[in-house]
Amino acid sequence: MSDTPVIGVLALQGDVREHLIALASADALARPVRRPEELAEVDGLVLPGGESTTMSKLATLFGMLDPLRARVRGGLPVYGTCAGMILLADKILDPRAGQETIGGIDMIVRRNAFGRQNESFEAAVEVAGVAGGPVEGVFIRAPWVESVGARAEVVAEHDGHIVAVRQGNALATSFHPELTGDHRVHALFVDMVRAVG
């Protein structure tokens, strides 16, 4: 891998364009990923926000769920925001019928924990590993992490709740840094991808 890693954004649903812009500004070559052959060509992957139940159904429909699980288990660096965090959880506290995850982080996540769409908010969040002060977190029907296992590291909390977790090559935030113009969390992820290369 060169100094400019190729990072995909799972483009089945959600805020794909914003992640592509944030990754490009963090010196990655960003591209949408919809098919297994596109997944095979990336050095890292972002799972965007959206609707986690719909995303898991579309991943199954597009033949992506098993390849995603295999690549994440194989060590592919992956970053999930909001619904992407839910997809990376080994367990969902209150799953919808038929909802599946990719897994990869030893955590239990509660869907829509911060409330409904009209209860969305922004807050300053201190994220371990991100220099320069707190990042602006946009919370939209956001999950939080109920608990983490021994292998997972809590990297941010808000209002007493875990909102960012890292485990090995996997990073997850319940908020949306791609919506703020502050791309330091994406830069952290790009550095994680480079470290693997």
Please summarize what this structure is.
The chain has helices at residues 16-25, 36-39, 52-61, 65-73, 83-88, 184-196; strands at residues 6-10, 29-33, 44-47, 78-81, 89-92, 105-110, 121-125, 135-139, 144-148, 153-158, 161-167, 170-173. With 197 residues, it is an alpha/beta fold. β11 and β12 (170-173) form a beta hairpin.
Describe the structure.
With 197 residues, the protein is of the alpha/beta class. It is built from six helices and twelve strands. It has helices at 16-25, 36-39, 52-61, 65-73, 83-88, 184-196, and strands at residues 6-10, 29-33, 44-47, 78-81, 89-92, 105-110, 121-125, 135-139, 144-148, 153-158, 161-167, 170-173. The strands form three sheets. A seven-stranded mixed β-sheet has the order 2-1-3-4-12-11-10. The mean pLDDT is 93.
